[in-house]
Amino acid sequence: MADEALANAGLHFDDLNKIRVLEPEIQNQTTELKEECKDFVDKIGDFQDIVGGFIDKVDQLAKEVEKEKMKAIGSRNLLKSISKQREAQQQQLQALIAEKKTQLERYRIQYAALQKEEAEQNEFIEQFILNK
Asked: How far, in Å, CA of 108 to CA of 130, rounded?
């Protein structure tokens, strides 16, 4: 009866016969919950460490990707530049070929004129020799 009177008043005895405000079963559940919470907090800490490491790795990978991206852009720009240089060089060479063709045609005309003049002079010489 005394135990019931104390229980009604909110006081309880534990296994060591110490007076407690909480019932022993609730006290045990509270202790278990406290331990589970501690384990949960420890696991959350481990998870945060793992996530922190993962974020560091991802950041490092992102930096490497950005670096390679810049290299690729530089290479592409260099390739475009080389392509434009080749086009300009090709145009210069085509202009030079056109100029040389024009010069060749002029030399052919000049050669034909010189051959005609040579033929005329040879004919003049022959006539001059025959007339003597």
From this structure: 32
Using alpha carbons only, give the angle 6, 12, 17 rounded to the nearest 5 degrees: 115
Model-wide pTM > 0.70: no
* Cα dihedral across residues 52, 58, 59, 60: positive or negative: positive
Instruction: State mean pLDDT over 51-68.
Output: 97
Asked if pLDDT for residue 9 goes beyond 80, the answer is no
**pLDDT value, residue 105:** 97
Rounded distance, CA 79 to CA 46, Å?
A: 49
Please give the Cα distance from 101 to 94 (Å, whole number).
10
- Integer Cα distance of 115 and 117 in angstroms: 5
